[in-house]
Design goal:
The chain is an all-alpha fold and 429 residues long. Helix content is 72%, strand content 0%. Mean pLDDT is 83; it is low at 1-6.
């Protein structure tokens, strides 16, 4: 089978090379570190340095992989260095580097992601991180079975005390993992989708944050997933980003809709999780911005006089986050309430209601775009949810303001309303 796979010529040539290396392979077990180092240098010189053709190099690599990986844990730093360098050259040059993953990934994980730093030399940790980046580059989708190990390694290397290791890890995370993850996020098996979402959470969380935009639309799409576990994983990941991502303030307006959409999920467990994560997000933001909120903390404690009965009022931090981002959220909602897919329109209308409940009387500042959105929503066949949003608007906005804008549309319907009677439907709600 071996000869058939590699070809008779490559198999015979590989055996000749390996026979010549047998003495050096035996020397790797010697007690003298200088002897082991010379043996590793000889192996490198007789293989990767000779420019062997791809198929022949693959055959040789398959036999040398285990001995070389063993040397990655050699007590002598120079031996480890030579072994890592040789392995990197093999991975870069062989035509099927993925064949080595079953042994390579556990070795890298042990050296980079142990409970304690296993590799004491900073420069060698950098070399291992570079090998990790190279492996991701050349193996791509073949890494799917090893996703958890890859994430664990990146979690460790991104916080490595050596700055160069951190930089290499961020490069690996940003450039190499995001695209393969997004290609698998709609996998046919729910368990795989959950794993991909959780891995994406870790990659974005511990990376530079520059690739948030690359994953948001994919994460948002999973909020419509038929599997509750998938929707729950999106909720947990987005909540974690809002709480812990280093540059989270720059992405609040993009992340809030995802978490707040889960507050109206049909599964109670997901609703509770989203509500708890949102509460924590608001309280954390409130603590971090306490000085800015001093004037509001006293007179904004009491709910508005017509606050909906039986509805728990969101905390001050949650309300302020929505108020400060409402102007950027409403235009996107106006687009989604006219989407050709019914689930998207319903989800957008539900989110609108959640936003209004947080914005309270601050809705007044955004009345024109809010009313235009409601006119569009009420012209839809799925009207019940938008009626609830219209009711909330009536709770928080003074009647004279509400009527002045709304009656103007009744007398002269605007082009923003597909149906001339939708202003009356909003008024009736």
């Amino acid at each position: 089978m071996y000869a058939m796979a590699l070809g008779e010529e490559h198999a015979a040539a590989a055996e000749d090379i390996l026979s010549g290396l047998l003495r050096h392979l035996n020397a790797l077990n010697e007690d003298n570190k200088a002897t082991r180092k010379r043996a590793l240098e000889a192996i490198k010189r007789e293989t990767v340095d000779k420019g062997l053709c791809g198929g022949l190099l693959q055959a040789v690599f398959s036999r040398l992989l285990k001995p070389l990986l063993k040397c990655v844990s050699d007590p002598a730093e120079r031996c480890r260095e030579t072994a890592i360098l040789t392995l990197g050259e093999f991975i870069r040059r062989v035509p099927r580097p993925g064949d080595a993953l079953v042994y390579l990934v556990p070795c890298l994980t042990q050296r980079l992601a142990g409970k304690e730093v296993t590799e004491p030399a900073e420069e060698l940790r950098l070399s291992l991180a570079e090998m990790l980046s190279l492996t991701v580059d050349v193996c791509g989708k073949q890494l799917a079975p090893y996703l958890d190990d890859m994430i664990n390694m990146l979690r460790a290397t991104i916080v490595d005390p050596f700055p160069a290791v951190k930089r290499e890890s961020c490069k690996c995370t940003a450039e190499s993992l995001v695209q393969p993850l997004m290609q698998s996020i709609s996998h046919q098996h729910a368990k795989v989708r959950v794993s991909v979402i959780e891995a994406t959470g870790a990659v974005v969380q511990h990376g530079t944050g520059k690739h948030v935009d690359d994953v948001l639309s994919h994460m948002a799409q999973r909020l419509f997933d038929n599997s509750p576990q998938v929707r729950k994983s999106v909720t947990a990941v987005v909540g974690d980003w809002l709480l812990h991502m280093r540059d989270r303030y720059s992405y609040f307006h993009k992340l809030l809709p995802l978490l707040l959409s889960s507050i109206t999920d049909e599964v109670p467990e997901i609703r509770l999780l989203a509500s708890e994560l949102w509460r924590q997000t608001g309280e954390q933001w409130e603590r971090e911005n306490e000085d800015d909120l001093k004037d509001k903390m006293d007179f904004l404690l009491a709910p508005p006089p017509l606050y909906p009965a039986g509805v728990e009022r969101p905390g001050l931090g949650c309300r302020e986050l929505v108020v400060r981002n409402l102007g950027r959220l409403v235009p996107a909602l106006s687009h989604d309430v006219t989407d050709w897919l019914v689930p998207t329109r319903v989800k957008a209308s539900q989110l609108l209601g959640v936003l209004l409940l947080h914005a309270e009387d601050h809705c007044t500042q955004h009345m024109q775009p809010l009313l235009a959105t409601l006119y569009l929503a009420c012209g839809d066949s799925e009207r019940e949810v938008c009626r609830e949003a219209a009711k909330l608007l009536g709770f928080f906005v003074a009647p004279e303001v509400f009527l002045e804008l709304l009656l103007g549309h009744v007398e002269a319907p605007s082009s923003s309303s597909r149906c001339p009677w939708t202003p009356l439907m909003v008024l009736a709600a």
